[in-house]
């Protein structure tokens, strides 16, 4: 069953001079509304479509499109190029002797690809702690700190799988129901089944912090289910991190950046070194495409850096359609009614507002249940508020 969402993306070049932009947004698809045409399009060995264009000073890029939410990929075979691409070593996802030794230790006794990947999944979930923002990016930092966000969990899973010959990729995308709610997870390839989804960070949160998503619009699963199953409430921006940028990214010399009048912000470190987003790449690659990567004009180093995250990632909003979209809006409206009614019920001690408070809670619960978000919990809550609702209605009549 399709779950179509509408995606609105925009980027305003509030910088000095030209801003070069690479993106994996589907700029040339027939059903896309877009203010710009790509100047160049490249398809990499992992079948990612990368588009390139430039924005003049104060120019705005806007794009709207609809897409089905993420579902398990049905591809059953990989070409030699695809297999090599998803087994490669990089700066963030490293395949070396240390990782090979660790991966073999974790998977000792496992025979099939599925058994090995499952062992890696349990190891990553059990041995690392979720923390945002991370101190650094990449598995070297993750191994040292033993904590990181969804990106680091996915890089670690990819690195361990690739180290023992299992093609694996990090999927960079977003939750499909809000503004700029980025997320990263994995797929590994099994020759018997195809691409299989895995989300180690969500598994950790559901295992250790069960209440974190209690009131959110994200449908959650039992933590072990995140090996092989997802909730179909996300969209994909790119298949894998460290995608090669074409045209070539013209890195500024790091010392030139450091010695500039106004050094830019450092969002994170890679291998203990500051990474300057918008002024350098990672061995010619974007660290991750979410859903753009930019290169600012050098003259921006002569002014105070823009700390607005929209200057680095742009803005996106994802709106659900159909029944999910309806119950999402109903939930938001019911929250508003709940807060208004609870204030008046305390001020006026009126059975009308008490009934309205209980009724709004029940409607909120029904919305959660209809969206299949923690249905058992919200069924119990709805039943709990049913009695005061009926009691206050009886007082009114």
From TrEMBL:
Keyword annotations: Membrane, Transmembrane, Transmembrane helix
Membrane spanning stretches: 335-368, 375-394
Record-annotated Transglutaminase-like domain positions: 142-202
InterPro entries (alphabetical): Papain-like_cys_pep_sf, Transglutaminase-like
UniProt keyword annotation of Membrane present: yes
Entry-linked SMART domains: TGc
Matches recorded under SUPFAM superfamilies: Cysteine proteinases (SSF54001)
Keyword tRNA processing on entry: no
PANTHER family, sorted: BLR5614 PROTEIN-RELATED, CONSERVED INTEGRAL MEMBRANE PROTEIN
Name of the protein in question: Transglutaminase domain-containing protein
Species: Solibacillus faecavium
């Amino acid at each position: 069953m399709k779950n179509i969402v509408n995606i609105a993306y925009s980027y305003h070049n509030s910088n000095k001079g030209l801003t070069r932009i690479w993106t994996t947004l589907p700029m040339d698809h027939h059903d896309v509304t877009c203010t710009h045409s790509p100047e160049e399009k490249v398809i990499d060995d992992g079948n990612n479509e990368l588009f390139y264009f430039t924005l003049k000073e104060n120019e705005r890029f806007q794009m709207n499109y609809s897409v089905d939410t993420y579902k398990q990929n049905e591809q059953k075979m990989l070409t030699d190029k695809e297999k090599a691409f998803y087994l490669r070593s990089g700066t963030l996802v490293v395949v070396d002797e240390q990782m090979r030794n660790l991966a073999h230790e974790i998977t000792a006794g496992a025979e099939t690809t599925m058994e090995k990947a499952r062992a890696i999944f349990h190891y990553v979930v059990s041995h690392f702690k979720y923390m945002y923002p991370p101190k650094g990016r990449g598995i070297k930092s993750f191994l040292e700190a033993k904590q990181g966000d969804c990106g680091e969990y996915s890089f670690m899973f990819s690195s361990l799988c690739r180290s023992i010959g299992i093609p694996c990729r990090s999927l960079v995308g977003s939750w499909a129901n809000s503004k700029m709610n980025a997320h990263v997870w994995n797929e590994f390839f099994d020759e018997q089944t195809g691409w299989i989804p895995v989300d180690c960070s969500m598994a950790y949160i559901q295992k250790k912090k069960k209440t974190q998503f209690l009131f959110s619009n994200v449908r959650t699963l039992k933590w072990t289910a995140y090996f092989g199953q997802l909730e179909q409430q996300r969209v994909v921006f790119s298949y894998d991190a460290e995608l090669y940028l074409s045209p070539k990214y013209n890195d500024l010399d790091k010392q030139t950046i450091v010695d500039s009048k106004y050094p830019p912000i450092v969002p994170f470190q890679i291998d203990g070194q500051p990474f300057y987003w918008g002024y350098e790449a990672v061995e010619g690659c974007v660290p991750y495409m979410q859903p753009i990567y930019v290169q600012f004009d050098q003259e921006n180093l002569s002014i105070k850096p823009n700390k607005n995250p929209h200057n680095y990632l742009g803005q996106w909003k994802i709106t659900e359609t159909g029944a999910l979209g309806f119950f999402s809006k109903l939930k938001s409206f019911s929250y508003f009614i709940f807060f208004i009614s609870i204030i008046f019920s305390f001020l006026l001690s009126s059975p009308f507002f008490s009934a309205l408070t209980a009724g709004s809670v029940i409607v909120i619960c029904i919305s959660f249940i209809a969206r299949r978000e923690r249905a058992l919990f919200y069924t119990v809550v709805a039943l709990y508020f049913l009695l005061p609702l009926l009691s206050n209605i009886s007082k009114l009549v």
